[in-house]
Write a structure and sequence with these properties.
The protein has about 600 residues and is an alpha+beta fold. The strands form four sheets. Strands 2-3-1-9-8-10 form a six-stranded antiparallel sheet. It has a six-stranded antiparallel sheet with strand order 4-5-6-7-11-12. Strands 13-14-15 form a three-stranded parallel sheet, with helices on both faces.
């Protein structure tokens, strides 16, 4: 269910303001607020169906007058049938929509009901009898939820720009978030956002808001990254069989019912496995969609030769979108506007273009995001597998950090530089926390629990939702993740990373799709800045708004603008683009 949700909660007898919620609804895509606002004296809610969603689930807010409950719901439940079977013993549900199921589950099991939900979701429930509101985000943070506290009120929305549009919220830059943005190739993990007055609810979190203003949060899912005695006698074959079955279950769960399956097929192991698993489950008429660019010099702009090999092997209805630099330039402004937060990864505008193309033929798409972070697919995972537990921080930082604190002292103007190395401190705290046996366990936990929702998940889901396309992410099935966490590290880190996944792939896929160097999604137009795109970046960084903000030292900016294609972050991104997209985003949304 592709929806945007928004709301305002007023405390201590104050009245919620429907006008502020209407402003958020307008930005979410409902210019006339047709039937999208419900309000009680102290709470106002809105749900806005996004493009391409005409289902009954989209007809929200949903009100249960008998139980004095109201809900707005964004996302999709994967275990509807199971929940209906459990609830039908005591309940006669008005409908089988996700919203009515969630309301009945909450009434039956209280706040613990969320532990029974499978799926991706952001939920706001108003319980008028108990005079409280519950805000809930799914375990892996696939569905976003932004929050702002005002004097005597709290507001929330599905996107940061929508929340900011409600008015009265501090939209200046958060220096700590800016430090994170510059350190980690634009990632700002929850609860912070780039704006000082707006936070985001962390994944796997339920926030209970009482009418007197008291707020309580709890994390309802936090897997332990330690080996379990339950699997002590499992052999490699046992792990391969169990994970294969768990993957099959995850793919089946995430598939949108009664819709022909589609896959975003890069030609890499992860997306190719999704095609193979769909075929293995008996799915017919699988559609696959690949995107790429013309080669740029010695750099390949696509992996079509691999995606076509997989499409041929499984007889899919294959679609290829070949793009040029002008295509990216043409949609750059729209893609930046669609960003819930500034995202500097080169593939974001390309995902936007891809979603625009795919949504003409499909409503949902299976995507392989998250597999590297779950199955130890990056080179630094291999390094982490062979070092002592206490060396995790140094090894991870060497591969992942774009700029350390000393670097940032020469990049940011003094008023924007934090007094301490807040990014390194957060990494150290997360990596050193108990509950992870080895350095690799600590790194995988850090990525899954802290970074994954904002990179790579946000990139593909944000751009997909902006066009009305639902991105399904089977590798982020939480039961699959729990199983993979328990799998011995030597099986995950083997064969250059994702060893156990490659073994599963060998029984299903052409071997040259597996036994090849790891591929990345290249977007030459944002790696080698020139022409229209370089002009847009230059204009944004030299604009009066940017000069007034004064985030970056003039000398540093001059160096980058004079040499736009010389400086790159360790992960390969163009440094000038990282600065440029931040200013483009702030100016497009009139923020900061």
């Amino acid at each position: 269910m592709l929806c945007g949700i928004a709301g305002e909660v007023a405390f201590q007898g104050a009245r919620a303001d429907p006008a502020s919620v209407k402003r958020m609804a307008r930005v979410l895509g409902d210019p006339n607020q047709h039937n999208s606002i419900w309000h009680d004296p102290w709470i106002a809610l809105s749900q806005v169906p996004l493009q391409n969603d005409t289902s009954d689930n989209a007809l929200q807010p949903t009100i249960d007058a008998d139980r004095d409950l109201a809900i707005v719901f964004s996302g999709r439940l994967f275990n509807q049938a199971e929940l209906l079977a459990q609830l039908s013993i005591d309940y006669s549900l008005r409908s089988t929509t996700d919203a009515d199921i969630v309301l009945a589950a909450y009434d039956r099991w209280g706040e613990d009901f969320v532990e029974r939900l499978l799926g991706s979701f952001a939920i706001a429930i108003t319980d008028r009898r108990r005079q409280r509101v519950l805000l809930i985000r799914d375990r892996l943070g696939i569905q976003p939820l932004y929050i702002a506290s005002l004097n005597g009120k709290l507001r929330f929305a599905s996107t940061l720009p929508a929340l900011a549009a409600s008015g009265g919220i501090a939209t200046t830059i958060d220096p700590v978030a800016l430090h994170h943005y510059m350190s980690w190739h634009s990632i700002v993990p929850a609860p912070r956002t780039i704006l000082a007055g707006i936070k985001k609810l962390p994944p796997a979190t339920i926030q209970l808001i009482e009418s007197d203003g008291q707020i309580r949060e709890r994390v309802y899912w936090k897997p332990n990254y330690q080996r379990s005695a339950r699997y002590a006698d499992w052999r490699r074959e046992d792990w391969q069989q169990a994970i294969h079955q768990a993957l099959q279950t995850a793919v089946t769960r995430s598939q949108v019912p009664n819709e022909p399956p589609g896959v975003q097929l890069s030609g890499g192991l992860d997306s190719s496995l999704l095609v193979a698993l769909l075929a293995e489950s008996g799915q017919q008429q699988i559609s696959t969609f690949s995107i790429g660019f013309d080669d740029a010099g010695d750099n390949r702009g696509n992996e079509f030769r691999y995606s076509e090999k997989v499409a041929d092997a499984f007889g899919t209805d294959h679609h290829v979108l070949r793009l040029g630099a002008s295509d990216v330039a043409d949609v750059l402004d729209d893609a930046v506007l669609a960003m819930a937060e500034p995202m500097a990864s080169h593939d974001v505008p390309a995902f936007y273009l891809h979603a625009q193309s795919v949504v003409q033929q499909a409503k949902s798409l299976q995507c392989g995001q998250g597999a590297d972070e779950i199955f130890a697919g990056y080179s630094y995972h291999g390094a982490a597998a062979s070092i002592p537990r206490q060396a995790a921080l140094a090894t991870f930082a060497d591969s992942f950090v774009d700029n350390n604190h000393q670097d940032l002292a020469g990049i940011l103007n003094p008023q924007w530089l934090t007094h301490t190395d807040v990014s390194n401190e957060l990494l150290a705290e997360a990596l050193d926390a108990p509950g992870a046996d080895t350095a690799l366990d600590a790194v995988l936990r850090l990525e899954t629990q802290l970074f994954l929702a904002d990179d790579p998940v946000k990139r593909v889901t944000n751009m997909s939702m902006a066009t009305g396309l639902e991105a399904c992410l089977p590798f982020l099935d939480h039961e699959l993740i729990e199983l993979v966490i328990a799998c011995p590290n030597e099986l995950k880190a083997a064969q250059g990373g994702k060893g156990i996944l490659k073994d599963i792939g060998r029984s299903l896929l052409p071997h040259d799709v597996i036994d090849r160097p790891k591929g990345y999604f290249p977007v030459p137009a944002l790696g080698q800045l020139e022409g229209t795109i370089l002009a847009k970046v230059r204009e944004a960084l030299l604009a009066p708004e940017a000069r007034e903000r004064g985030l970056f030292r003039a000398g540093y900016l001059d160096t980058l603008l004079t040499n736009p294609n010389v400086y790159y972050v360790p992960t390969g991104g163009n440094t000038l683009w990282k600065l440029g997209v931040l200013e483009l985003w702030l100016q497009h949304h009139d923020l900061g």
